[in-house]
Amino acid sequence: MRLVVDQLSASLAKTRIVRDVSFEAEGAQFIGLIGPNGVGKTTLLRAIAGLIPFQGSVTLDGTSLAELSPRSRARAIAYLAQGAGSHWPLEVSRLVALGRLPHLAPFRRPGPEDEAAIARALQLAGAEAFVGRDVLALSGGERGRVLLARALAVEAPLLLVDEPVAALDPYHQIRIMEVLRAYADKGRTVIAVLHDLTLAARHCDRLLLLDGGRIKADGAPGAVLTSQNIRETYRVEAVIGEGEERFVLPTRRAE
Hints:
- This protein is an alpha/beta fold.
- It has helices at residues 41-48, 70-76, 92-97, 112-124, 140-153, 170-185, 197-203, 221-224, 227-234, and strands spanning 2-12, 15-26, 29-34, 55-60, 63-64, 77-80, 158-162, 189-193, 206-211, 214-219, 236-241, 247-253.
- It is 33% helix and 30% strand.
- The model has no long low-confidence stretch (mean pLDDT 93).
């Protein structure tokens, strides 16, 4: 699927947050959306998902987002919000099964194909051990993996995730990044809001660096995560490691 974002601008409470953002994405790409707090990352992601009004255009395979039916949009785009939670005491597999609703006719129960997608999502997110448990009885990190499984169960060609590794321990941060990488490698596009620049550098094949609501840099991690870009955008000095073991280590505030 080809995503084209053209001159997208969006406001919150009459304040312009995202300004004239344009980029394209197609096929197997894991894109990290990075930048300091308040530069419009979440707003941009929500606009692409069609959850807030915006100016400009978003098209999927040449069709405007506004022209897609709600069901078609829900099949094409899976979205996991930052800090998403569950307010109902649902059993884990039933919660993940909600990701299959865009594929079901009204009042139709999940069939074998849907059950297989649910099982794949649970396994991929490392949440299969929670099956049979009440989602509200899980820890915050465990619940986050279940909610990621719900988004994965859609098996949408475009997956949007907002800070998917927040509140996770280092092992599960790496595991979730590997999950998103694997999902993209199946020919899908993943766009994730990320704050950990080392995780972004090691797992993403493309980064969009936002600053002031605009794209400051767009490209491979090595081209985007330069000392100058980090200094100008994050206002910190950083040590940057290259090669297979890429890392970005902020060392002090920039003067």
